[in-house]
């Protein structure tokens, strides 16, 4: 009973975290999903390298790569802030941290090969097919607070 | 739920973060900031053990400079965790040092009992699943959410 209640208490998404206490209202702002315009499946270079590597390495059941750079104080058409939502069998026996490491390393190697530095921010949701509900949307990122630099 | 909200509004829970012991900070700030080199592993080993929970973030808990760092601060606040916070924006050598130490490319980074737990995404998922309460318990920290729930159950029994 306690465990169930705890999970009910702590099973809070970033969307409604602000309902718990006023001190955390800034987390709950739902920001519009920011994606760059694509023409005929063409993606900007960094996003393209990421997608290719993640598809090759993880053979995902579902993959979503969202460029959130427009939500941040960066030049237009920047590719500095990304969110990755990926569902793959490869995560089946991996802990959360190992899943994230796998995604980080895949992206890092792909960008290095393509001659890019690692991006400023990469947010990851890595799920197994069993954990994934197809209608589920990725979490929204919290608002930018102006932290600067690489 | 209301009880939890009220308890978390209590001034006692508003500022739970502290800075690391000054001597240690001064030592690497002076040495590494001067050379521009990343903070070395030995210093990092000490830094991540200055408290049961240590957070490397952008800004400080009173004024986070990044939404992801802010999210970590708020989760810690909800659980009533006392922790040491290090602002990587104040020191480039610390920023690079912690990334090298964990082989993790982004900030914030959270350590519990000297062990790297993850960044904002992992902490949020642990919070959602209830795993964070368990992880804190292993470190000898009882989450305020757990305390509030137990208090509520006691009240219900009394009625």
From TrEMBL, chain A:
GO terms for biological process: protein maturation. GO terms for cellular component: mitochondrial matrix; mitochondrion. Transmembrane segments: none annotated. Residues 127-150 are annotated as: Disordered. SUPFAM superfamilies: BolA-like (SSF82657). Residues 127-140 have a biased composition (Basic and acidic residues). It comes from the Eukaryota. InterPro entries: BolA, BolA-like_sf, BolA/IbaG_stress_morph_reg. PANTHER family: BOLA TRANSCRIPTION REGULATOR (PTHR46229), BOLA-LIKE PROTEIN 1 (PTHR46229:SF2). Belongs to the BolA/IbaG family. This is BolA-like protein DDB_G0274169. It comes from Drosophila melanogaster. The gene is CG13621.
UniProtKB/TrEMBL annotation, chain B:
It comes from the Eukaryota. Residues 53-117 form the Glutaredoxin domain. One of its GO terms (biological process) is [2Fe-2S] cluster assembly. Keywords: 2Fe-2S, Iron, Iron-sulfur, Metal-binding, Redox-active center. Pfam families: Glutaredoxin. CDD domains: GRX_PICOT_like. One of its GO terms (molecular function) is disulfide oxidoreductase activity. GO terms for cellular component: mitochondrial matrix. InterPro entries: Glutaredoxin, GRX_PICOT-like, Monothiol_GRX-rel, Thioredoxin-like_sf. This is Glutaredoxin-related protein 5, mitochondrial. It comes from Drosophila melanogaster. The gene is Grx5.
